[in-house]
Amino acid sequence: MAITDWPESERPRERLLKHGAAALSDAELLALFLRVGVKGASAVDLARTLLKHFGSLSRLFAAGRAEFSGIHGMGDAKFAQLQAVLEMARRALREEIRDGDALASPRAVRDWLRLKLGGLPHEVFMVLLLDAQNRLIAAEELFRGTLTQTSVHPREVVKLALSHNAAGAILAHNHPSGVAEPSRADEALTQALKQALALVEIKLLDHFIVAGAAEPLSFAEKGLI
User: Fold this and answer.
1) Other C-beta atoms within 10 Å of 120: how many?
2) N or C: which end of the chain has fewer CB atoms below 10 A?
3) Sign, CA torsion 70/112/222/125
């Protein structure tokens, strides 16, 4: 049955307009993005198929062009639209932490990192550099692969921070396993970077671990910095 044949109170668009986007399920939100389904399947059915295939919204968002377009009913046009929506969301969140106090907007920082790193199949290490008012100056990806003290060099982090005349830094990396708990290697690396940055009077403010759609873990909140 087409969505237009559903009772009006059950249609995703009408429910969003009446109750707000937060009232909709992941499948309903995705269905609004898709707009139409395929033969024999409504947009909601197609959305459920996508979520079942990828396992979560974050993994769907991180999917490559070939995998996404390989799903029946998807293609380059839908892939391009999805990437445009995601990039607009990232830019809006980045503007929020660039124009205001990043430490006063922890939700924006977490949401931006989750959109940036949450669904990646490989480990990525990033540094967010802040000015004296804790406004974002730059966000740089420094490394891809298994995170160790030998893979992330403190001198490279210090060099990057000095090049931007940063007053503070926030570290971030993802755990593709989906488990946000820090390893001993994560803790050792954090302390090494904290000490290296302190030598040039740059304060390490936090280190976030992003694991899928879960809430990013904050080292500062855990008392690990």
Assistant:
1) 17
2) N
3) positive
